[in-house]
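To whoever picks this up:

The nightly regression suite flagged ABC transporter ATP-binding protein as changed. Nothing in the input moved, so I suspect the structure step. Input below, exactly as stored in the fixture:
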Amino acid sequence: MTSAVSFQHVSRHFGPVRAVDDVVLDIAPGEFFAMLGPSGSGKTTCLRLIAGFEQPTSGHIEIFGETAEGLPPYRRNVNTVFQDYALFPHMNILDNVAYGLMVKGVARQARQTKALEALDLVELKGFEARRPSQLSGGQRQRVALARALVNEPKVLLLDEPLGALDLKLREQMQVELKTLQRNLGITFVFVTHDQSEALSMADRVAIFNNGKIIQVGAPKDIYERPRTRFVADFVGSSNVLPPDFMQRTGGPGKWVSLRPEKITITARGMTPGSHAVEATVTSVHYQGAVTRVNAEAAGQAIAVSAPSSFGAVNIGDTVTLQWPADAFHAMEDEA
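Regenerated output under the current build:
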């Protein structure tokens, strides 16, 4: 099957800086694919390489089997939605959405009809006469989506599109974006530094660091089975435990990832078949449904995420931390 987007040993250098360094990647048609990583990790440069805003220093890029390098953005069957929306403040919403069709020379009546259909798709029917300044942040985001979708791209690129929204609206838009992508069936490539966004929306996630892809997989695989300490630290919250500590608790002589929610706190004793260590509580943070407990065991800091109904513990208490034998994941050594 032809990939929607294929990177074949692609690099992009800016002087001595290797912004993208020998990336090999295939994104499937109809996939919601997230590129996740810290600032400067290479994810946005990869998105710009797909869009045509940057050209590779070396390597080969294909979009649905067609060579992309050297092809200007307007000749690629992709569209980009930016974090700042990039709407024209002097145009009404209908003309903003229809702008790309006007540039292509589509007749006025035809482009207005398609723009109205796109606004209906993002649930903004009746807003076409307003200006961007008269809309909320979430509504402006929908207009930017409609403007991109009206051109019927094969690949929709989203560059931190929810970063300017408040938490509640961002969570709402996550659901709406995923539903829209599923209904349309087109390929979405989503760049974010927000782990919860990537895990909740994507079919697969690529973890970037220092211009390279460290791991690619389904969200659950990335979370449950991080390949390296960097992935374990970056994706969600994890206890990254060293080999000597694990050996003292009967575990492997390797670095492991142990998620806080896999650990239970008891006053004393140990459940058969589990690993356990005595620890001293150093802080307690009530967070509603869960309580975050930080503890220290043999000089090792360990975080526990427990249901708030588990019972009270106080700073200075001596407790037993325990986890099932299959709760931790041994990781590869990092170069």
